[in-house]
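Please, structure for the following, as tokens.
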Amino acid sequence: MRTFHPRARAHRPFRSSVVAALAAVAGASAFAAPAQALTTTHSCAFPFVDAQPVTLTTTPGTDPAYVVDGFTLTVGASVQPGADLVGAFASVGGRSVDIATTISVGGPTATSPFQTVPASGPIVVDPAFRFGRFPANDYTPGYSFSLSRLAFTLIVKGANGQPIPFDPATTSTPQTDTDPDTLQVDCSFSPPEQNKFLISVRGSIITPQPSPKPPPTPTPTPTPTPTPSPIAPPTPSPDPFPAPTVTVSDVTQSGAKLCWSGTLGQFDSLERGFYVTAKEDGFNATTDPFFASDANGCATVAGLDPGVRYRYFLVARKADGELAKISTAGDFSTTSAGATPTPTVIPTPTPTPTAIPESTPTPTVIPEPVAFSYALAGTATMKTLTKGSLPITGALDARIVRPVNGSVTGNLSLNPSSGNLTALGFLPVAAKVEFVTAEPVSGNLVDGKLSVNAKVRIKLPSVKTLGIELAGGANCQAKQISSIALSSTQPTFVPETGGSIAGTFAISNLTGCGFLTNLVSPLTQGSGNLIALNLTRK
């Protein structure tokens, strides 16, 4: 392979020489059908948002190096979910979602690294999928690749940037591993019958075979030498190098920002950057030879002169340190001294882009409340002149709206309770207590924190000491409704499983409890009473 030397005064055409060298060594070629973008639609069972439509766009390609001894299939992909994946996990404390994409092309399967789901738009898989290496020697009719599977792995992260654990046994979709930090999502083709074909690749033996030695023939009688026919010019070989797009921005008096995009075949794994020459004597006066690219394919060129026209080349640094030119040239001019830095950009000529099918518009997802039913059990601890604990049982039917605001509404029902308490520190009291719901429960579930408020009327059907009825009856109750503020106690409340909640409440003075009402009321009146409940999903 010819290399590009930074200090050379002139350069011969690079691509044509490489094509000729490969043709001479190979003796025969292998080829791939032109890459076409394939768009497929799927139904994917995401936890917490159920089955959602997903559009997958894949664009296959091949490594030009396969003409020597094989090829690697490269497939670029972008994913467009039909729901807000980040917002779907807001109600369980999710602030961001990392996603890894898995696709299968027939038998071979590849999974991308984890990348953060953007706030909007498609998820562009980076880097592209790579399958193989497949042999290029003597295979006929060749390889055909079709898309056969799409799946995802999710990591939901909270406000602290750490993964939120989920119990694999309680998620709404089946899980293929026991890692609590990941969620597995499998997809099916929807509709099942649609075009799944990606690309076909075939080739021939690349080592020329010797021709058999012909038998000896008699010495022919000399004949007049015919006038030679004109030799047709050779058909140009296709350019094996892709034509990346190069853009110039942020042009100043002394530099510019150069960026490239596109697939560079066998140069993808090498360090890449830009070589710049000043437009003097046909671009022969060189400046610094190489500028290392950042992770986004950009390099900042500095140390240039103001008001000078420059030509750039995209180059790759080989293992031996030499540079190989891998793009055509483009021009730009630095701004003049004292002038307002307005960039003058002459873009690199690029081939006509392949039309990409327009993606189906993402439907607007209107969140609907999700119903959850819980059994509850716990205790209420009195902190007034009458002390002790009462067992609490009941149920909560809640409706949670996700992911917009995490609002919670529901109906709370508490069963009557009985307990042995102590009044004034020495007097045993046997009490029957009822908690009558006054209005529906309301609250919210935000960042994994559940907060709800319940309003109940506390009734005392019976209050006895030493077997003597002190107060009670159907009308014995607190004058005012008690407001119970409850909050989840664990780091993340997961509606699909339930959890623990706790809070405090107050009891007002009593009414309707008989002629000893004024005696019993001070024993129960007061605030700071504790209630602790555990919610279990029915």
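The first strand starts at residue 31 and ends at 32. The chain has a mean pLDDT of 76.
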